[in-house]
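Thioesterase domain-containing protein, pasting as requested.
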Amino acid sequence: IAVFTALVPPEYGNHRQSAHGGAIATLFDSLTGCTLALISEPGYWDGREVTRNLQINYFRPVPVSEKIRIECEIVNAGKRLATVRGLMKRDSDGTLLASCLHDKFNPVAGGGSKL
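Structure tokens follow.
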């Protein structure tokens, strides 16, 4: 498990001082991807992977300028495919704000195209 903390800057918020959904998606995309560094080796989840699918569930507004905690866990990682789960919580009380499942593809593993 990798744990990150962050503050969403006001410029990524809306008129209600909640983070824009795109800002939340960007955080999940980046941080769940960084989590794969825990198992990285040359050619194996070494930073060249790409997103196959990023599914996000939004439960509560994510306040701007308030500390949030993002917990990321590798659910599965093979040679070419990996899935990482992310949970975004309010740091002050642990309230779940959003969650994600991030499917990644490693184009480096297994050699070239079969086409």
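Note for the archive: The first helix runs from residue 21 to 35.
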